[in-house]
Amino acid sequence: MRAEAASHSEDDRRRMEEVEARNSLDGIVYQAEKMLRENREEDRRGDVKKAEEAIEDAKKAVNEGGVPRLRAAKENVERSLHKKSPKSFTRRRKRRVPQRDKLVQPALARAEVLPRPRAARRRRARRRDRRRIRGMWT
Q1: Which of 67, 59, 61 lies closest to 15 in space, CA to CA?
Q2: Number of domains in the chain
Q3: E strand or H helix at 2, and its extent?
Q4: pLDDT digit string (tens) for 119-138?
Q5: What's the mean pLDDT in 112-123?
Q6: Can you give the CATH number for the domain in which 52 is found?
Q7: Which domain holds residue 90?
Q8: What gap in Å lies between CA 50 and CA 47, rounded to an integer?
Q9: In the prediction, which pLDDT does 95 show?
């Protein structure tokens, strides 16, 4: 049995490598599709089209198989995402939320957050339980 396992170890390694490459590519495709869905209206059509082409190519590669093909498709999708992402981040930075009304008094803006009554009750209950355990109360 060990001899049989040793004879098939190379096949198992190749199969495992292909499965890992396929899973990795599938995850990248999912991220790319999600990014395109969220930022479609903000991006240029040329960038979106190139990213969609890379995604379609990656889906074909998943169906075809082959480690070199899967890795090449993954690199292609990553390249299209890396070209697109800095542009979307700079656009987000430019769309800053307007500041609040400057008439708000600084003391109100920095109001202290008071503990909730439920949290205070929990703390008291924990202290009471600790005292009971130590024997201070009966």
Answers
A1: 67
A2: 1
A3: helix 2-7
A4: 788 888 888 888 888 876 54
A5: 71
A6: 1.20.1270.10
A7: 13-94
A8: 5
A9: 52
